[in-house]
């Protein structure tokens, strides 16, 4: 019997997002299901088969006995329902659009791990302070609005957004003034200094999408830089559950937006797991022990639950080859003028659509990350 | 803590990057040409800027300079604010400040005649905090200072690391640091002030080899929470960037 696993999974998620579906309505739209009588349909709801998913889960034998129709008809109805649902969901949901990051090496890597930059994807970017997470996000936003005439919502939690940096990037790209203006107009900035504001922003965006507000409909990418300042004061054992609850709400909001075709990129910070002499070791870096035992030494913040929210987690790292060699002391002596070769390693930490663990090299330039 | 829900009135799309660029920015000049160009006109209000370096590299000097530069009159493009100096090391020298103020007075003599050194000194408020508990108390009471003196545009903590690193207990230190960050962020939401904190360097043994390398004190989370970090080297050069390995040299 051809029960498509993907169908069930999709069904489950849809059910959750779109609420209970009208099973009756659906059945009456299928050619075989049309022949069922009102009495038979009532029987279904009396037996707690109220949603499409319930119907799909119920065994053929039971349905056969319940509705007193041949097993073949039951199968037929199920198949038709599945087809109908697929057709409807495709008509409803926005088609998946591939955007591309505009960073050649990264696009190649992401294609190879089956996670191109598409609508509805939730990405997380982690890394140590100063590795270029913000620059990566700026570059992504710029590339995005430049290539597609759509808008980006940049949620700034650190009150850190710097037009100067955007302008510098634009300057280095030598675009004409009109393009620069268009690009800058398409990047909308919202300050979200606390977690409540952050949730409010996402909620508002969702409401405005429903209300068909022009700006919201054009927005296709949400960038959050970064999650940490909003949640950092929920610390210690007592606040752990509060934080978890708030993160769950955030995850729901983001997933809701993802279901409507918005892509999101979220910034996070990672900690080295071994540095015990740090003032960091009070359990803040919780969870994710399996990741740490693997070759990644760094664990992003927010633990195992948050790790499951994003469809792709990337970490931005300094390549290990040059580690600790030239750092000796420029503080005492004025020596080399450039300490940073601008190379960054992008590591795929986890990936819900394909293999993880691949990496590629990017270079930080005046014009952004390439 | 919880802010009232603004979802009904919130307009997400009236603040594009372009709009921000058109608006005039409130920055405090650092007086260091390279730094000013890289920072887009100086230190931004509403951000936490950290100055880091070994002792004697000019961190306190820049702090004092900023305390004066924030007072530059509006007629010559300044902010005409005042400054609060939170001193944890008890090495605040009014004479040093006076010297700098006189220099600044000379520089602005023609353009802003009323901008005098003696008046500048009056507008630098000084709080002494010999230990971490007092530092915390001062930061918590900042909202009162800001209410009484709404023209305070700059709060300096010199040095943030000093008092925190006197605490033996790592967990307590971390707790206090995050508490400080929380208060600083809260104050920033209510008042448009710039925070300038100073930090010191420490050495850490790298995991693989036995090599020591230089890192900033106070940990990674702190590094993530500050907005800008300026490194000072002994050769009077400034670098900009969150971590020492990747910061950029700023030419004066």
From TrEMBL, chain A:
Q: Which keywords describe this protein according to UniProt?
A: Nucleus
Looking up InterPro entries in the UniProt record yields: HRR_RAD51_Paralog, KaiC-like_dom, P-loop_NTPase
Q: Name one GO cellular component term.
A: Rad51B-Rad51C-Rad51D-XRCC2 complex
Q: Where is the composition biased (Acidic residues)?
A: 276-288
Q: Which GO terms describe its biological process?
A: DNA strand invasion; double-strand break repair via homologous recombination; reciprocal meiotic recombination; telomere maintenance
Stretches assigned to the KaiC-like domain: 101-246
Its chief place of residence is nucleus
- Tell me, what is one Gene Ontology molecular-function annotation carried by this entry? single-stranded DNA binding
Q: Where is this region: Disordered?
A: 276-296
State its location(s): Nucleus
Query: Which PANTHER family does the UniProt entry name for this protein?
Result: DNA REPAIR PROTEIN RAD51 HOMOLOG 4
Q: What is this protein called?
A: DNA repair protein RAD51 homolog 4
Q: Give the species.
A: Drosophila kikkawai
Lineage per the UniProt record: Eukaryota, Metazoa, Ecdysozoa, Arthropoda, Hexapoda
UniProtKB/TrEMBL annotation, chain B:
The record's Pfam families line, in alphabetical order, gives: Rad51 (PF08423)
- PROSITE patterns recorded for this chain? RECA_2
Q: Where in the cell is it found?
A: Nucleus
Q: Which GO terms describe its cellular component?
A: Rad51B-Rad51C-Rad51D-XRCC2 complex; Rad51C-XRCC3 complex; replication fork
Please report the stretch or stretches of sequence annotated as the RecA family profile domain.
24-201
- Which Gene Ontology BP terms does the record give? meiotic DNA recombinase assembly; reciprocal meiotic recombination
GO molecular function per UniProt: ATP binding; ATP-dependent DNA damage sensor activity; crossover junction DNA endonuclease activity; four-way junction DNA binding
Q: What is this protein called?
A: DNA repair protein RAD51 homolog 3
What organism does the record attribute this protein to? Drosophila kikkawai
State the taxonomy lineage.
Eukaryota, Metazoa, Ecdysozoa, Arthropoda, Hexapoda
Gene name per UniProt: LOC108084926
């Amino acid at each position: 019997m051809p029960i498509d696993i993907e169908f069930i999974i999709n069904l489950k998620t849809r059910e959750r997002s779109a609420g209970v579906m009208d099973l009756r309505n659906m059945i009456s739209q299928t050619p075989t299901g049309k022949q069922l009588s009102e009495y038979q349909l009532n029987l279904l709801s009396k037996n707690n088969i109220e949603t499409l998913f319930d119907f799909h889960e119920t065994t053929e034998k039971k349905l056969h006995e319940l509705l007193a129709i041949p097993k073949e008809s039951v199968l037929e109805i199920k198949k038709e329902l599945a087809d109908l649902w697929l057709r409807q969901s495709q008509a409803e949901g926005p088609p998946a659009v591939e955007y591309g990051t505009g960073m050649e090496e990264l696009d190649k890597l992401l294609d190879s791990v089956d996670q191109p930059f598409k609508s509805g994807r939730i990405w997380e970017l982690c890394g140590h302070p100063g590795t270029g997470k913000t620059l990566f996000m700026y570059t992504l936003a710029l590339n995005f609005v430049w290539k597609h005439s759509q808008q980006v919502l940049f949620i700034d939690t650190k009150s850190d957004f710097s037009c100067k940096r955007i302008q510098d990037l634009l300057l280095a790209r030598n675009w004409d003034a009109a393009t620069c203006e268009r690009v800058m107009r398409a990047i909308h900035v919202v300050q979200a200094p606390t977690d409540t504001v952050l949730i409010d922003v996402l909620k508002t965006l969702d409401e405005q999408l429903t209300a068909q507000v022009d700006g919201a409909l054009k927005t296709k990418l949400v960038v959050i830089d970064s999650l940490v300042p909003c949640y950092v004061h929920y610390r210690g054992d007592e606040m752990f559950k509060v934080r978890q609850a708030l993160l769950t709400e955030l995850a729901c909001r983001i997933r809701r937006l993802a279901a409507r075709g918005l892509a999101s990129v979220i910034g996070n910070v990672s900690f080295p797991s071994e540095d015990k002499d740090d003032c960091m070791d009070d359990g803040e870096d919780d969870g994710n022990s399996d990741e740490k035992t693997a070759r990644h030494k760094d664990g992003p913040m927010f633990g195992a639950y948050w790790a499951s929210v994003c469809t792709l987690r990337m970490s931005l790292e300094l390549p290990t080859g040059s580690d600790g060699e030239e750092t000796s002391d420029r503080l005492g002596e004025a020596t080399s003028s450039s300490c940073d070769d601008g190379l960054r390693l992008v590591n795929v930490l986890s990936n819900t659509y394909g293999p993880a663990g691949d990496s590629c090299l990017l270079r930080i330039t005046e014009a952004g990350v390439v | 803590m919880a802010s009232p829900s603004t979802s009904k009135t919130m307009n997400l799309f009236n603040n594009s990057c372009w709009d921000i660029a058109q608006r005039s920015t409130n920055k405090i000049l650092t007086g260091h040409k390279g730094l000013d160009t890289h920072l887009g006109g100086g230190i931004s209000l509403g951000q936490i800027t950290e100055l880091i370096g070994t002792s004697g590299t000019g961190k306190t000097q820049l702090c004092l300079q900023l305390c004066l530069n924030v007072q530059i009159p509006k007629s010559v493009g300044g902010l005409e604010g005042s400054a609060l100096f939170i001193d944890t090391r008890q090495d605040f020298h009014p004479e040093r400040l006076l010297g700098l103020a006189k220099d600044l007075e000379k520089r602005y003599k023609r353009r802003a005649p009323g901008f005098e050194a003696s008046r500048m000194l009056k507008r630098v408020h000084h709080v002494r905090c010999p230990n971490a508990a007092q530092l915390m108390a001062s930061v918590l009471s900042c909202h009162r200072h800001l209410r009484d003196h709404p023209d305070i545009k700059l709060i300096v903590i010199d040095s943030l690391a000093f008092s925190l690193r006197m605490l033996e207990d790592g967990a307590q230190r971390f707790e206090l640091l995050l508490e400080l960050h929380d208060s600083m962020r809260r104050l920033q939401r209510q008042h448009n002030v710039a925070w300038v904190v100073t930090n010191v360097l420490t050495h850490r043994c790298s995991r693989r080899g036995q090599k020591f390398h230089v890192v900033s004190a106070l940990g990674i989370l702190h590094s993530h929470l500050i907005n800008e970090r300026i490194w000072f080297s002994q050769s009077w050069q400034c670098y900009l960037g969150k971590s020492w390995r990747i910061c950029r040299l700023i030419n004066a």
